[in-house]
Amino acid sequence: MQTLALVAGGPLEELPDLNAFNNEETKWIGIDKGLLYIINAGIDPYHAFGDFDSISDSEKENLKKLSPQLSIFSAEKDKTDTELALDWAVQQQEYSKIILFGATGGRIDHMLGNIQLLIKYKNINKTIEVIDRQNQMRLYQPGTYEMKKLADKKYISFLPVSEKVKGITLKGFKYPLTSCQIELGSTLCISNELIHQAGTFSFLDGILLGIRSKD
């Protein structure tokens, strides 16, 4: 699967090991300070976006030499650097998956904004995941999905991001559900677990945010 890996400038301690996700089918995109994270991990960047107001002028000049494509924007703009980078990424037809790193932790306004960007792109024909050291999240549209047990992520949570989510059914989970409805603000589906190697979840209407987390 051809993948675009976008690395934003969130706290370094929230990043997983980027090299664990690096392979020949993945292109790496730096977002502002995230470009430094990519380079410091020994990974060659493919593109970069940002106003780069969080780094020094000397660092910025070095980045211009290291990144083959560098889109620099004014600090005064109507979209965040992350949104601008995602706008570009979703238009790259040859890539079917986008992973966003460095989008959580630190400033809560940026973190919440980054998670809400998943809603903006809910209708694109690509998978977008947000991954940090502890969590992995993505948005789901109505349908039936299989989930396999992951050794390093015990907990599975589902949060409604539409006013209502109808017909939720969970099979193979510690806390099963059958044709349940939850509303925005509900915590009913937080901290569930798979009891087998795989389980399924399905729903009929609405939008769910699925989150897989470590202990």
TrEMBL record:
Family matches, as CDD domains: TPK
UniProt entry tagged with the keyword Transport: no
UniProt entry tagged with the keyword ATP-binding: yes
Pfam family, one: TPK_B1_binding
Entry-linked SMART domains: TPK_B1_binding
Annotated SUPFAM superfamilies: Thiamin pyrophosphokinase, catalytic domain, Thiamin pyrophosphokinase, substrate-binding domain
E.C. no: 2.7.6.2
Enzyme class, UniProt record, top EC level: transferase
GO molecular function, one term: thiamine diphosphokinase activity
Keywords, ordered alphabetically: ATP-binding, Kinase, Nucleotide-binding, Transferase
Domain Thiamin pyrophosphokinase thiamin-binding: 143-209
Protein name in the entry: Thiamine diphosphokinase
Organism: Metabacillus herbersteinensis
